[in-house]
Every structure is written in C-alpha cells, then in structure tokens.
C-alpha cells in the first residue's frame, strides 16, 4: 500500500509557516501605512496560488485527514535569516532621533515567544476539537479553514496597526516637545544676548566713571599743590612779619604798609584769576555758538542750493575768435532778467535762417526764432571769474559733505575744455573751473581749521574713450594701459566706487593741482575733426575726494567733487565717404552720443523720481552714480558757438540740455521769489 500523499495546499501552508512566521513584538517603532498594506497584499498573493491549485484538483485525488496547523507566533532572530517584523525607515536629523529615543524609553519590551520549528508547529484547534484532514473533495471546508487563517492574520495586522498608530502619536508628541524646547532655547539665547549687552554697557559706564574719578583726582592734586604753595607763601610772610616785628618801632609803620600792599596784591590776584576763569567760560561759549552758527550756515546753504535746484543748467556762449566771421545782428539775443537789466540773464533767443525754405512767391521764409530758458546764461563777454563766482557756492556744498557734479557739454570747439581747465600760458584771468575750485576749497578749509576742522583732498583724473576707462595721471610704462582700469566697489558692502589701477594723488596746494592738469592734458585722447584741430574724443572726469573731521566733536563728512569735460557732441555727415580715419571718428562719435544719451536718460529718471535709473548703461553714469542721485548737486554747462554756421549743432545742444536738464519757467520764478524771501530773513537776523 502506497503512502498517502500530502496535499499541495498543505505544502504551501507549511512553506508559508516556515518562511513567514508572525512576530509578536509589542514594542516596535512606528511603521508607515504603506508597509502594512504591502504585507497583507503579499500574504494574499501567497494564499492565492494555493486556492487555484485546490480548484484544479479532481475528485479522484484523495486527501488524508490530518489536523490543521495553527498559525505560529514566534520571534525569529535576524541571524537565522528569518523574516522579522517590518523595519522602521531611518530618519535623519536631531529631532527625529531624539523623539525615537524618547518613544523607545517609554515602551516596555514584551516577552518574545520562542520560535517553533515548522515541523513541530502545533495545529490550530477549531471548536475545541482536533480537526482531521479534510478530504480533497471538501473544497468549501478547506476554503473556510483558509478564511479563518486569513481572519487571524488580519486581526494580528489590525493589532499591529494600532500599536503603530500609538507609536506615531508618541513620536508626534516627542517632536512637539522638541519644537517647544527649541523655541524656549531661542528665547533664552535672546535673553542671554540682552543680558550680555547690558553687562557690556555697565562695563562701559564703569570705565567712564573711572576716567571721571581719575580726572577729579588729578584736579584735586592740582588744587592741593596750589594750597601748599599758598601755605608756603603764607609761612614766608609770617616769618617776614616776625622779622619786622623784632625791628625798631619806627619801622612798624612801614611793616603795616607792606602788609596792606600784600593784601591788596592777593586780592588783585584773586580778581585776575576770577576774570581769567570768566574769560575761559566765555571763550567756550563763543566756540559753542560759533559751531552752532557753522552748522546753521551749512543747513541754510544747503536749503539755498536746493531752492536753486539740485539739477541746474547754465548756458555759456563763447566769444568770436580772431579770424572767424562776425555773426549777423540779432542772431543771438539775451533778454534781461525779471528784475531788469541789472538782473543776470536767464533766457536765450536764437534766430535761424533756412535757405531751403521759401514762400510760394519765391521770397525766402522769415527766420525762425528759438527761445530757451536756463538757470543762468553767460553772454560771450562773460569772464572765467564771473562764471566761477556763480558756482562757488555749489563747490562749497562739496566741502559741507554733499556730492557735487559739474558737466561741460557742447559741440567740438564750443569752449568746454576752456571752461573746465582754462587757457594755456598760466594766465590767472583765464584759469578754468578746476584750478579755481581747488583754490577756493583750500582757502575755505584753512579758515575752518580755526574752528577745529581738518580736511584732506585726494585727486584722480580719468577719461572714458569708447567705453574704456583710462588713467590720465599714468606715468612711465603705465601710459596707454587704460584697458587695465575697471570700475569696482571699494570693498564688500561698500557703496563707494573706485577705478582699479588708477592713481589717487593727495593734494594740498595749487602747484600740485597744476602739475596734475598738465599731465592729464598731455595724456588725453584728441583728434582732428571738421570743427576743431584738436578735438577731445573722450569724457574726462576729474574727481576730488574730500574728507573732513572735527576731532573735538567727533564729526566727519566726506563727499566727491566731480568736474566732467564731456566729449564733443557733433554728428557726422551720413553722406560722407568713410576712409580709415573717418571710420575711427564714426566709432568714436557713436560711443560719445550713446553715453550722452544715457546721461540724459539718467537725469530724466532722477528728475521724475523713477524707481529704476539706468546707471549701468554707460561707463560715465556708472562711475558718477553716487554723485547724481539723492542729495547730490548737479550743474550742466551747455556751451555753444556764436557762429551762424554752427547753428544746427547749437540748437541740438540747447534742446538736449532743455529736455534732459531744463527747468520750467514757473519753477525759475518760484525760485527767485523764494530766494528773495530767504535773503530778507537773513537780513532780519541780529548780527552776531
């Protein structure tokens, strides 16, 4: 008789018990819901093939009755390769590790059930009786058995889910505690920083009190020395008195007279000392008042400049040079100011006769009159001293700590360089704005030194040629190395701009400035054009960094003074045949006009208080950006030629200045009225 074969379904069940023992461990880390779902799916996938194989068996297959095996709940060590409870995914970070450690400490370790071998596993008892093996045809019974087993497995899974949820709640509570502790730690750290700051303040106050004690002790020592000297003097007088008392009686009268004279001298000395102390107190009060008046002067001076306008435009017409044709009468008109002929002119009228225009009868059209209004207009007869007198107060603002930028704009040959640097030969009458401005600054700084102010001046001179920065103060082998100069920030977080590889020369007198101007004039890029034999083809920027300090009061001020000679703004004839030299002039003109257009856009953006100002569109505006906005003072000299042949370029210059820098007529009238009110207020103040 052949041995009874074991059912394939029972073999699957035995393999399942061998490979997937259930572990009952009450103290486990929280498991994600996805891991439990995956475990139940795998369990059902294992049972599914057994059901299919059971359905495929015929009625002819005989199953020996045997007891069903009960589900084994064991704890299998990892070293035996058995499948243990699902592991908790590790989380990084101090909060997670702290929370898990807290949960593990509060969790009690449950007793592990000893693992049973698969062959000796006790079969489950159903209904209290030991069931036998179901026959092969009893598929419904076998299915019920499997459902019971699946129900047991699901109950066990539900129990594990509950334990996992409890562990998650504990972990969440631990994380909340860690968050609260972190917030409390930050609060304590802030309190500690505040206490430390208070301690440092207390130490500083203690140091101040110690210094005060030392000062009082020193004064006490001085007073004690004075008392000792007076005591010595008194002892001497007493000895003299005793000596005189021993003399003859006839000398008593002289002794009394001497004592009276001595008493009078002492009273006079005391009176003189009191007078000296009063004079010292009065001197300190006068110095304090003088400082207050100086601060008031700076404030009123700045208000006066703001009333005139932080952005101003002056127009200057150069005189007719020898050999040039005399312009026709009425070509340039300078109407009188609002107060009559004595008032400086602020308007300019230019007549233009266009021969290409005509009437239907063939008669030439009448000339066109163009009127312009500026803050000040200088006719051809105005001298360099008159021009500087108008801007002297603006230069003073740089010494008071306000950035100042002065431009000279116009076509080639209109007198820009003459206005800025002056004429050749060293004639004091034709000195330009740069030497006059520095002479004025040196003189005022010398006067303010009597009030405790000390000033230092550092000069630099660069040119911007075809958007390339060159150092005009370069000497020796450094000449012509303009490509190495770049505009950079002075340091991390600093708003000050500096030019790398450029010379910054400290200056303290006029001779040093004259030497720098002569060197810069030799290094500047010039070329011959149709308008001028030596035309400046670059923007030259003379920068003077002014730093002032009042050591006695701990006051400091710093501001740059920028004097800019812009390149010629004329246009090239588009119909001109371009050779190699003309192509180079064309590139120069394009770079010049582009930078001038950017300058106009920047000034318009500042006037309109726009949120974005295109400083970086040009090297010129990028270098001068700290001297263009905010409380900076700007002045544009638009220089024009008096010749009729240059009327087109003159109109372009005047229109550019009026559009970009111009001030409406009503604003000028308001400025004059406000200026008159300020002058009356100053006159009403008592003379101190």
Automatic annotation (TrEMBL):
The keyword Nucleotide-binding applies. ATP binds at residues 410-417. One of its GO terms (cellular component) is early endosome. Its main location: cytoplasm. It is found in: Cytoplasm, Cytoskeleton, Microtubule organizing center, Centrosome; Cytoplasm, Cytoskeleton, Spindle; Early endosome; Nucleus. Residues 150-310 form a coiled coil. Residues 310-663 form the Kinesin motor domain. Keywords: ATP-binding, Cell cycle, Cell division, Coiled coil, Cytoplasm, Cytoskeleton, Endosome, Microtubule, Mitosis, Motor protein, Nucleotide-binding, Nucleus, Phosphoprotein. GO terms for biological process: cell division; microtubule-based movement. One of its GO terms (molecular function) is microtubule motor activity. Residues 25-71, 107-138 are annotated as: Disordered. Belongs to the TRAFAC class myosin-kinesin ATPase superfamily. Kinesin family. KIN-14 subfamily. Minus end-directed microtubule-dependent motor required for bipolar spindle formation. May contribute to movement of early endocytic vesicles. Regulates cilium formation and structure. This is Kinesin-like protein. It comes from Myotis myotis (Greater mouse-eared bat). The lineage of its organism: Eukaryota, Metazoa, Chordata, Craniata, Vertebrata.
